[in-house]
Amino acid sequence: MSTDPTRPPLLLVLYQQYLDHQDTGEFARGASRLYSAGTLQRMAGHPNHKVRRAAVLALGFLGDYDANHTMGCALLDEDRTVRTLADNGIRGVWTRAGNDAECKEIEAIVQLNAARLHKQALGRATWMIERAPWFAEAWHQRAVAQAAMGRLAESIRDCHQTLEINPYHFVAATSMGQAYLRLGNPVSALECFRRALRLNPGLEGVRAQVVRLTRLVEDSR
User: Fold this and answer.
1) Which terminus of the chain, N or C, has fewer Cβ atoms within 10 Å?
2) What is the distance between the alpha carbons of residues 160 and 66, in angstroms, rounded to a whole number?
3) Nearest-10 Cα torsion for 71, 76, 82, 86
4) CATH number, domain containing residue 45
5) What is the pTM of this model?
6) In a domain, 3, yes or no
7) Nearest CA to 162 among 192, 198, 123?
8) What is the domain range of residue 137?
């Protein structure tokens, strides 16, 4: 499928239909039928910002972990909507790094953490790490469970490992900053929050923390 900037791609038609009707299933099915994941990744760098929006939206629904770099770069796009779509979509990409069984397991662990069943999430994440240590989201979900259970040093180590595997994981950088804050270490927390902002400048809550902690650290010197 051509990505010639002088010829509006069919993806734009699908995107406009999505904006008109908000039918995510229809948009995802249409994009999957017309484009490969590799083509969508190339289109995410298109000169037309609307094409970039459509491609990033599609990758958020369809892309596996191979799209992580593309989505990470889109977090820094000059277009605000592209950045927002990348922020929403990349989190799904992080859960699609393995085979079907591994991806389903990660989804189950995410749901356990969301339900505050952290001990169960911890056990299943550990089991997942033992079998797929390259799956960054397994480490992050275990970090979430560790932090919720008050095991802050362990959570920080798991966040470090998450970022070693997936350097675009701004959520892990943020989680690590929050753990350092709870440990009373504002200097390390500030470093983590700054790292998260470099990855995703749209994190307004993190930006506020950076401003606050910068003043706190400077006043303590």
Assistant:
1) C
2) 21
3) 30
4) 1.25.10.10
5) 0.91
6) no
7) 192
8) 100-219
